[in-house]
Amino acid sequence: MPKIIEYFGLVFYFYSHEHLPIHVHVRYAEYESVVELFFESGELKSMDVRHARGIEPLPAKQLKEAKKVIESQAIFIANSWSSYFVLGKDPETKKITKKL
Q: Strands across the sheet with 43-51, in order?
């Protein structure tokens, strides 16, 4: 389960055997949501949020923060996905210590 981003209690990660579309799991305490990313011409065009099965979804405040992180780190997330699932390389973990 590669962790790719830490941001003020939010943890963004992939499971080891994922599937398309590119998506990232976001955990905060006992909550988790999954965010699918959709790109067009190399830019994030939209994202869809879905609930992780059997886990309470992120509270609204944390989901809003998670979306900000994803918007600002979309290319990093996509590159981490490709590196891990296509090239088989472990992605780096980025720790963001300044509020977005």
A: 43-51, 31-40, 23-28, 10-13, 3-7, 94-96
